[in-house]
Amino acid sequence: MTRFEPSGVVTLTTDFGLRDPFVGVMKGQILLRFPRATLVDLTHEIPAHWPAEAGFWLARAFRYFPRGTVHVAVVDPGVGGTRAIAAVETEGHVFLAPDNGLLAPVMDGAAAPVARRVAESVLERIGVRAVSATFHGRDIFAPVAAELASGRLEPGQLGEACTDLVPGWLEDPVVAESHVTGAVVTIDHFGNLITNIEAQHLRHLSEAAVRVAGRDVPMRRIYADARPGEYLALMNSFGVLEIARAERSAAEGLGLARGAPVVVFSKRS
Amino acid sequence: MTRFEPSGVVTLTTDFGLRDPFVGVMKGQILLRFPRATLVDLTHEIPAHWPAEAGFWLARAFRYFPRGTVHVAVVDPGVGGTRAIAAVETEGHVFLAPDNGLLAPVMDGAAAPVARRVAESVLERIGVRAVSATFHGRDIFAPVAAELASGRLEPGQLGEACTDLVPGWLEDPVVAESHVTGAVVTIDHFGNLITNIEAQHLRHLSEAAVRVAGRDVPMRRIYADARPGEYLALMNSFGVLEIARAERSAAEGLGLARGAPVVVFSKRS
Amino acid sequence: MTRFEPSGVVTLTTDFGLRDPFVGVMKGQILLRFPRATLVDLTHEIPAHWPAEAGFWLARAFRYFPRGTVHVAVVDPGVGGTRAIAAVETEGHVFLAPDNGLLAPVMDGAAAPVARRVAESVLERIGVRAVSATFHGRDIFAPVAAELASGRLEPGQLGEACTDLVPGWLEDPVVAESHVTGAVVTIDHFGNLITNIEAQHLRHLSEAAVRVAGRDVPMRRIYADARPGEYLALMNSFGVLEIARAERSAAEGLGLARGAPVVVFSKRS
Q1: In this structure, are residues C113 and C180 in contact, taking their beta carbons and an 8 Å threshold?
Q2: What is the pLDDT of residue A130?
Q3: Assuming Cys at both sites, which of B34, B155, B207, C263 could form a disulfide with C211, CB separation 3.0 to 4.6 Å?
Q4: How far apart are alpha carbons B87 and B157 in whole angstroms?
Q5: Taken in order B180, B184, B185, B191, is the CA torsion positive or negative?
Q6: Residues of chain A under the 50 pLDDT cut
Q7: How far is B142 from chain C (nearest CA, A)?
Q8: In this complex, do C222 and B28 lie within 8 Å of one another by their Cβ atoms?
Q9: A45 has a chain C CB within 8 A of its CB
């Protein structure tokens, strides 16, 4: 396994939005303990209480950051209850999140991941006290991330390795001989429909096309291969199937939302 | 008083939004004078021209940042007119804002605050020239913040201490024997209603419950203590009363906006 | 020409929004190559596929950043096709953008700009490989920006100087003896209408007033010179004519959008 050697970079992924000072205050708490941290927002617009999307993006985004990055994700409907805090170490990166399935996509897609639950004794040891009931991002995640990013705490010290983190919320695509059925996981800023279907799921299909919202959509390489207003599907830059509409919003045009089914079929069959 | 020793951190709070380059340009002007500044956005989504909310959040957020932080807040309907620039030093932090009541909540809640108005001679001394009529965030606040954060300018050099900053816009809750009446100050990203009622206002009430929009709402410790869709009230992580709806938006459900009255009463009386 | 000496600052301007991890991932790729980069968001809310607005703001914002700043702008409807990557060096700053007209306002407004197209051999030399078809911001712009900001690559090494970058999308105002006709280029967060009319276009008009949406609007110095609800026009802090409504949204009040015509006339004539 690639050992975690801190780069000083900490990424933040939440459903807090940017309207309130919540994200800023988390950064304050990280800087208090580790003034030289380099803080990068991944996104704070995860749909409220929907950890699945945070994990989906993290699993596809983390390798674009330097090894030694600490990735903190807080989408936490169970805050203040009994859920644990999960940590995953893989490929020289460390992830912290509520143990609610958020990190399942990282566990599934990364090399030799090691999962742990953060022990209570660790919080005591690093001086985490007076924890609020409703804002663990500030009171627990930020301090632990700072200690990891500064190198004062090693991932191996967080707790015993375990194999029973809470499982993920998203189903894998169903792969049949003549077609593959997946779903829209999220809709991006441009209205492109991002699915959970990866290139590896489609290898056995020749001349694939996509059926979505009752419409057949051709596979293209780039957006500019379609005329403005035309629908297209492509394997996007994060390695998943995306349905787009050239220079428009596919989501609006098709009237689709998260969860909508997407079928890829072989035009030969 | 805790002396201000600059940490290099500068927080920014404005009503500029993130759609235009205004915030970025303020950061450019800070980095021009102090390249090693650590810049943290608190929020840029303060309602336009509503300084009260900026002060409300700053007063509750600043202690989560390292001592030595400079907090710049620009919500400034009177820009270019005769309003002065206020500076407050307290607990090892410094605040800069238009003298329009924005910093009143900081003055009210902090230990031994010292208020000043920034003297014209200071601007001359640090080379602030060619000030625009409409963007003092860039032309005045950013340079002064950079000089303070770099340590080249001390808070005591900004001007004479004074006791007559413009007062705040928010009224305090009314505390009666059997109940306390406050108001919704802001609505957060999750649709939670944030009020101006603090724990200290409620100490004399036994078995408190909350009446809001004609509805009685029970006090809980955490969101997960209510079933999805149920309303609850809790003392939130910033120490003020909040009305929430588990996994939903209380603001939408109750049809309430900023300013709505909130009453806490004793179920015993 | 002022030589480019890297300050370590990189600004980012895109139409990616902040809902997805696209901007964060670009930052990850910059930090991977240049860990000490200082990253500043100019804006990520450029209207989708509308490079003209990115160039408009960059041309007016860049001088507020330290000399030696690298400005990366990615508004790129033709990504993955045959469009080149443009680089402009001027006044000690460097700009990178798709060659689609985005940088035309910078070329027009800056001193002795030198334009280049980034040569394929440069990408090979700095180890850019496995470029996706749809996300050049991450796969090309971020690495090139990092190499420039770190000083490992000089602007002069990007390619041959050229004079035929793709021209801009915005027309200049039409200046007549008795009036000047321009257009709304963008609408800011406050609902102010930002036009392409600069002070230099108006020098020959005495006692100027503005006609917009069939209404005559007086010129003022600052917002506070009008009563709440009144319309006014002013030369804003970026040197262009702006139509505002005191403490309200002029865009909503007038029902206007980007592209709307604005006429400045002389009240004397």
Answers
A1: no
A2: 85
A3: C263
A4: 11
A5: positive
A6: none
A7: 11
A8: no
A9: yes
| Half-sphere exposure for C34 (CA within 13 Å, toward CB) | 25
The pTM of this model reads: 0.96
Amino acid at C257: A
Which of A106, A65, A66, A95 lies closest to A158, judged by CA? A95
Candidates C20, C32, C133; nearest CB to A43: C20
pLDDT tens-digit series, residues A124-146: 999 998 899 999 999 999 999 99
Query: Can you tell me whether residue C185 is helix, strand or coil?
Result: strand
Cβ(C99)–Cβ(C135) below 8 Å: no
pLDDT, mean over chain A: 95
**Residue C110, H or E segment:** none
Q: Which H or E element spans position A57?
A: helix A51-61
Q: Which amino acid is at B3?
A: R
State chain B's mean pLDDT as an integer: 95
For chain B, how many residues are written?
269
Query: For an interface test with A, which of C12, C16, C22 has the most A Cβ atoms less than 10 Å from its Cβ?
Result: C22
What distance in Å separates the CA atoms of residue A69 and residue C100, rounded to the nearest whole number?
35
Q: Does C222 touch chain B (CB under 8 A)?
A: yes
Q: Where are the beta strands (DSSP E) in A78-199?
A: 85-90, 93-98, 114-117, 161-162, 174-175, 179-187, 193-198
For residue B222, list chain A residues with Cβ-Cβ distance below 8 A. 79-81, 133-134
Structure tokens at A28: 């304050």
| Distance set, CA C39 to CA A22, A64, C100 (Å) | 21, 16, 24
Strands C193-198 and B215-218, by their bridges, are: unpaired
Map tokens 């309430």 to a residue: B256
Question: Residue A187's closest CA among A219, A205, A217, A212?
Answer: A212
B13 touches chain A (CB under 8 A): yes
Question: Mind listing the pLDDT tens digit for each residue in B227-252?
Answer: 999 999 999 999 999 999 998 999 99
- Phi-psi label, residue C49: left if phi above 0, alpha if psi -120 to 50, beta otherwise: left
d(CA B208, CA B127): 56
Cα angle B17, B19, B20 (rounded to 5 degrees) comes to 95
Beta-carbon-side half-sphere exposure of residue B87 (alpha carbons within 13 Å): 25
Q: Which residues pair with A162 in a beta bridge?
A: A115
Pair A162, A84: CB distance under 8 Å: no
Among C18, C39, C78, the residue with its CB nearest the CB of A43 is C18
> Burial level of C123, CB count in 10 A (0-12/13-18/19+)?
middle
